[in-house]
Design a protein that fits this description.
This protein is an alpha/beta fold and about 300 residues long. Helix content is about 30%, strand content about 20%. The protein is built from 8 helices and 10 strands. α4 crosses α5. The longest helix is centred in the C-terminal third of the chain and has 19 residues. The relative contact order is 0.14. The N terminus is likely disordered.
Length: about 300
């Protein structure tokens, strides 16, 4: 029998890359994701964040290499009052189909660094040096990632970069759409330093990757009306997770479509294409991610 869709479920758990140089940081722009918030993971329960918690963390663009492809990630340092206490996690943030230069993704990384008390790394899956608005360009970049071993290697390259940052001793990851698929593949890679991943309206499927028991816990935030995840594909994803002895929670938002976290997805054209912003789902999924990482994944490490 198949798994019922829409439930919050638990399924029972049971290559090195070379950093080549640092690139200068461009000026950043604001987005709806850029609300200030305190670091949480490293603060003791009951303690109030200092006023400096709302200040911007230092950030920089860092170039790195994956099998001859030059990539460039935004690295955002953990808040200073967290970093001085010792080891901190890294949080990898994986982008959508328009690439890592998307302000939405960059501001998500900045917000995650503050709220999770982590070094954030906005991963580059393409090697593009600008936001990929052109549909032909997107298809070309995404075609390279149809080989899921290539996608996994790109995520592992970002993981190596994250683990090389001062004070980092463990990693977590989250991603949107394409990035949601990417962080799930990172979990399938079973790297022991990856403790947990969260997919926001990611592609839920069953790729032909080596079958390994997954050590990372998974939270998949999913819209029940996402047209890119048909029922048979959803069931295949659940079977794949079970076959990998994965610890999985699936949080389903009734009626939510693809890209429910994206504030700009509000036009009739978006809706007709299966994209629609859902404010409550966006807020609740972010809060669920924080609880999952802070109270579950990092608390048990």
């Amino acid at each position: 029998s198949g798994f019922a869709r829409g439930d919050l479920r638990m399924l029972a758990r049971a290559p090195r890359h070379r950093l080549i140089q640092r690139a200068p940081s461009p000026s950043s722009s604001s987005s709806p994701m850029s609300a200030a918030a305190p670091p949480a993971h490293a603060l003791r329960r009951g303690s109030a964040p200092s006023s400096s918690a709302a200040s911007a963390s230092a950030e920089r663009w860092v170039e790195y290499d994956c099998d001859g492809t030059s990539l460039c990630a935004l690295v955002v340092d953990a808040p200073q009052e967290v970093a001085v206490r010792g080891a901190v996690p890294a949080v990898l943030v994986a982008h959508t189909a328009i690439g890592v230069r998307d302000d939405f993704v960059l501001d998500a990384a900045r917000r995650a660094a503050k709220e999770l008390g982590a070094v954030a790394v906005a991963c580059d899956l393409y090697g593009a040096r600008e936001t990929v608005w052109d549909a032909e360009d997107r298809r070309r970049y995404m075609a390279e990632l149809q080989d899921r071993n290539v996608l996994l290697k790109r995520m592992e390259a970002a993981l190596e970069l994250a683990m090389s940052q001062p004070g980092v001793d463990k990693a977590i990851a989250f991603g949107y759409c394409l990035g949601g698929k990417a962080v799930l593949d990172l979990a399938r890679g079973a790297r022991p330093e990856v403790l947990g991943v969260v997919s926001f309206h990611g592609i839920l499927d069953a790729p032909a990757l080596a079958l390994k028991p997954m050590s990372a816990s998974v939270l998949a935030c999913h819209g029940s009306a996402d047209p890119f995840i048909p029922e048979d594909q959803f069931q295949a994803f659940l079977r794949d997770m079970a076959d990998r002895d994965a610890d999985v929670q699936i949080l389903t938002f009734l009626g939510a479509k693809h890209a429910f976290t994206r504030p700009e997805k509000t036009t009739q054209e978006d809706d007709d294409a299966g994209f629609q912003y859902a404010p409550k789902a966006a807020t609740r999924s972010w809060d669920a991610m924080k609880r999952f990482f802070i109270d579950d994944v990092l608390a048990q490490d």
